[in-house]
Design brief:
The protein has a domain at 38-111 and 124-156: Phosphorylase Kinase, domain 1 (2-Layer Sandwich), CATH 3.30.200. With 156 residues, it is α+β, with helices and mostly antiparallel strands. It has helices spanning 2-21, 33-36, 50-55, 93-107, 143-155; strands spanning 39-42, 59-64, 74-80, 83-89, 115-116, 119-120, 128-132, 135-139. The protein is globular, with a radius of gyration of 23 Å. The protein has a six-stranded mixed beta sheet.
Length: 156
């Protein structure tokens, strides 16, 4: 019985010491998604069309009104490898950078998923974006969702 009490006391002591030494800095959890998500620029010298993306395997689903995204010429929502990818077209690469990037940054989902009653809620919105020629691509989970489509674009 004495050994059991000694074991319990030592275990409790280790837990207390371990808790005191643990990193309690929660600052990294408060970094906005846009600061964590990578942004990449690809094919600055190329101009793409909706057909370019469809040929690469992207499935277009719904066209959006360009009035909500100034300077855009066409906006499509679609899927690639079971990931949502929105594609915003501009007249040129420079226009995509100047007009598309600020709007893409505003569109990034700031809350990576909420917990309500101990259950993760379904995520909506985008976590990263990429500028591909004259296009700004909004990526569902992370930049790799778009990079896979960009590689398919290069192959098509």
């Amino acid at each position: 019985m004495l050994k059991l009490r000694l074991f319990a006391l030592i275990s409790l002591l280790l837990i207390v010491v371990g808790s005191a030494c643990a990193d309690t800095n929660t600052e990294s959890a408060e970094i906005p998604v846009e600061a964590q998500a990578g942004t990449s620029i690809f094919h600055a010298d190329r101009t793409f069309t909706t057909d370019s993306f469809v040929a690469a395997g992207w499935k277009k689903s719904k066209e959006y009104d360009t009035a909500t995204v100034p300077e855009s010429t066409e906006i499509w929502y679609g899927f690639f490898e079971q990931k949502d990818i929105e594609i915003r077209f501009y007249q040129s690469h420079d226009s995509a950078l100047e007009h598309g990037v600020p709007l893409a940054q505003e569109s990034l989902q700031m809350d990576p998923g909420a917990r309500i009653g101990g259950v993760n809620t379904v995520r909506t919105g985008y976590s990263a974006y990429a500028v591909v020629g004259n296009v700004v691509m909004m990526c569902e989970l992370d930049l790799s969702s778009c990079e896979t489509l960009i590689k398919a674009l290069e192959a098509s």
